[in-house]
Amino acid sequence: MERILLYIDEKSRSKKTVDWVLKIAKVLKSRVYVLYLLYSQRIEDKAKRLKKRAEEIRSEMEEEGWSYLYKIEDEAFEREVKVSLFLEEGEAISLINSMVESYEIGMVVLGINSGIEIEKLIRESKASIAIIK
Amino acid sequence: MESIRELLEVIILKLKSKDKIGVIKELTSPLLKKGVITDEEEFLKAILKRENLESTGIGFGVAIPHARTKSAKKLVLAFGRSMEGIDFSSIDGKPSYLVFLIAAPEDKKSEYILTLARLSKILRREDIRRSLRNAKDEEEVLQTIERAEK
Asked: Which of A78, B72, B101, B150 is close enough to B78 for a disulfide, judged by CB 3.0 to 4.6 Å?
């Protein structure tokens, strides 16, 4: 398998999932495409809750997302695993499916705590799905 | 932590090199002269190792080659602009016009990651990329970065 997609959002950051993906990628000599997703609704909700502008919250969440991505990149570098980083805002399943098509992804990996409707993803995805508990 | 503007030690508005390795060397050279990087060979080895493992071309015409290495004496940035675009094996398959090279000492992991994150965030903004591509002088580059960080 040449390409693996690791899906992450701010509610499903898991060291265990990252470790698992990097181990598998090392063995299979795969490149890992790491997608960190920002949910527009969560940005709006957080802005309302904290009485801040959505733009301000988006900026904070973007920085947090990139920091997490670069930590994964550093970890992957130490283990000599190839990675590509993506930070996107939008709808999770359609973004995953679009990346599966564009980069010919063989397997999508996500933590069990991600906000994704897993059955729908399994039904619609052309790639294999691995869910890490 | 210092801002991106404060970390920016080198600005080259018109890169001469036409390929990735040439651009990395061109941006590294003034850092060597300033004594911020002490061992060119070691630094280039570290940065090219990363280039082989990662896509430092983050898309939108931007590349951020980076390395954490013992030959870097402090965390610094060098910015170069290419008019023709350079192949950095970007994730969107397009050439990179704006190149930010980051060098960091091995013990500055948190600052290094935060710098990468801040820079990536800033450079996702289309207005900032446009300003950097059109900047007439170094001062305009610095003003753009400062505006982006506010």
From this structure: B101
Contact B55/A at CB under 8 A: yes
Please report how many Cα atoms fall inside a 13 Å half-sphere around the Cα of residue B50, on the Cβ side: 23
Confidence of residue B91 (pLDDT cuts 50, 70, 90): confident
C-alpha distances in Å from residue A114, one per residue of A14, A19, A88? 10, 16, 15
Give me the number of domains chain B comprises.
1
Name every chain B residue with its beta carbon within 8 A of the beta carbon of A73.
54
What CATH number did the domain enclosing B46 receive?
3.40.930.10
**Structure token digits, residue B18:** 């036409």
The answer to whether A127 faces chain B, any CB pair under 8 Å, is no
**Would you give per-residue pLDDT tens digits along chain A (133 residues)?**
689 999 998 877 888 999 999 999 999 999 999 999 999 888 999 999 999 999 999 999 999 999 999 999 999 999 999 999 999 999 999 999 999 999 999 999 999 888 788 899 999 999 999 999 8
Q: Do B121 and A66 touch (CB under 8 A)?
A: yes
Q: Which of residues 74-133 of B touch A (CB under 8 A)?
A: 91, 109, 113-114, 116-118, 120-121, 124
Rounded to whole angstroms, the Cα distance separating B94 from B84 reads: 12
Q: Which residues of A touch B124 (CB under 8 A)?
A: 62, 87
How far away is chain B from the Cα of A58, in angstroms, using its nearest Cα?
Answer: 10
Domains along the sequence of chain A with CATH: 3-132 (3.40.50.620)
pLDDT band at B40 (very low <50, low <70, confident <90, very high): very high
- Which residues span the domain enclosing B64? 4-149
Cα separation, A110 vs A60, in Å, equals 23
